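Need tokens for this chain, all 299 residues.
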Amino acid sequence: MAPTSTPLTPFGRVLTAMVTPFTADGALDLDGAQRLATHLVDAGNDGLVVNGTTGESPTTSDVEKADLVRAVVAAVGDRAHVVSGVGTYDTRHSVELARAAERAGAHGLLTVTPYYSKPPQEGLLRHFTAIADATGLPVMLYDIPGRSGVPINTETIVRLAEHPRIVANKDAKGDLGRASWAIARSHLAWYSGDDMLNLPLLSVGAVGFVSVVSHLVTPELRAMLEAHLAGDVAKATEIHQKLLPVFTGMFRTQGVITAKTALALQGLPAGPLRLPLVELSAEETDQLRRDLAAGGVQL
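Here are the structure tokens for all 299 residues:
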């Protein structure tokens, strides 16, 4: 059973884009995934995104993706929204993943902009609509042109928002002006997908975060969010500024790599990476330790 949601916050407010733990030999670690999911929800997450890019979805099989959803839902499904990434650059494949995620018990779907093929806006409209039509689950768009190569234009977002199951957008576009217009015109639930811009996006209408740094600092992110909601701008800004070294350190290189390194340093399930991702060097690990320490994270 999914936790209670509202149209304003259909997937909760603080969601971690969760890494996928692997065993030492590189196999899917379902026990580790359940332990990590439970830890994250205990820390204050009311949602988890699995099978996203931070979950190394390009390297996991369709069967592994469904198994992961089932395991995480079994661990935390009555306490947190479990959203499964189903985005690919093949609409038919994404539809298949969406249906499999629904069968596995996911509470919602994350659908990234098709990458590499650079479809026109009409192609994006049809792609996202096909996924939303395929199941009864609510859908969060994921707009990240720095990786996909193509933005979801504001007009396209507005048109997609007319679909009854497209209810949210994860914004990693890095453009507060476009975000402001899209939030005002689409009325979608808006989630920051760029940790450095969590607070600025709240100021223009976002309702929460889909975060990587929340693997480590969920209580601080929730405190910042609650301060903002209470109108305590000074407190929210203070927390944001305290976390700046964490934001910087976690994205000096690819976020999955740093997240798994930091989790391992804390003794939490993470495991190795699958190629083409590789482990941090000793020097990079030392730098990550310094960055996190500067932001108050204990390792």
